[in-house]
């Protein structure tokens, strides 16, 4: 099952990378990039035993975090993730995972301010 999950995560990353160039989009500002899809890249997803780890990159503001999550049995409810290392003082990222028999689902949310246009957005 672990190999299937790794393959799914790798395949998903390849498909996203094929549709959208990796890294920050230098042709648009933070506000424009905030409304583009996908806004997040999830990298290095690993599921082992009761642990899920991955890194998340917000393409709009170039924020990067390493996250770790403790999970229960397959099919259990959503499990909160924690930022690894020292989070920023104004860190607003939240993430959770849910494990099933064949995949790992991830929810990521964050609020941020863009200053590339007059006023704050």
Keywords:
disordered N terminus, alpha+beta, six-stranded antiparallel sheet
Describe this protein's structure.
- 16% of the residues are buried.
- The protein is of the alpha+beta class.
- A hairpin with a 4-residue loop joins strand 5 (94-99) and strand 6 (104-109).
- The chain has helices spanning 2-19, 30-34, and strands spanning 40-48, 51-58, 63-70, 79-83, 94-99, 104-109.
- The protein is elongated and about 50 Å long.
- It has a six-stranded antiparallel beta sheet.
- The N and C termini lie far apart (43 Å).
- It has one domain (2-18, 28-109).
- It has two helices and six strands.
- 19% of the residues lie in helices and 35% in strands.
Give me the side-by-side strand order of the main sheet. Answer: 1-2-3-4-5-6
Task: Let me know the largest β-sheet.
Answer: 6 strands, antiparallel
**Number of H- or I-type helical stretches:** 2
Order of helices and strands: HHEEEEEE
Please count the beta strands (DSSP E, at least 2 residues each). 6
Unreliable spans: 1-25
Compute the CA-based radius of gyration: 15 Å
**What is the molecular shape?**
elongated
Query: Overall pLDDT, averaged?
Result: 77
């Amino acid at each position: 099952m672990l190999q299937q999950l790794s393959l799914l995560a790798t395949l998903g990353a390849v498909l996203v990378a094929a549709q959208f160039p990796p890294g920050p989009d230098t042709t648009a500002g933070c506000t424009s990039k905030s409304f583009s899809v996908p806004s997040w890249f999830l990298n290095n997803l690993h599921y082992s035993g009761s642990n899920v780890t991955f890194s998340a990159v917000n393409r709009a503001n170039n924020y990067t975090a390493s996250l770790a999550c403790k999970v229960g049995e397959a099919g259990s409810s959503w499990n909160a993730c924690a930022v690894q290392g020292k989070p920023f003082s104004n860190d607003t990222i939240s993430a959770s995972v849910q494990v099933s028999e064949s995949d790992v689902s991830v929810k990521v949310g964050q609020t941020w301010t863009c200053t590339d246009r007059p006023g704050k957005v």
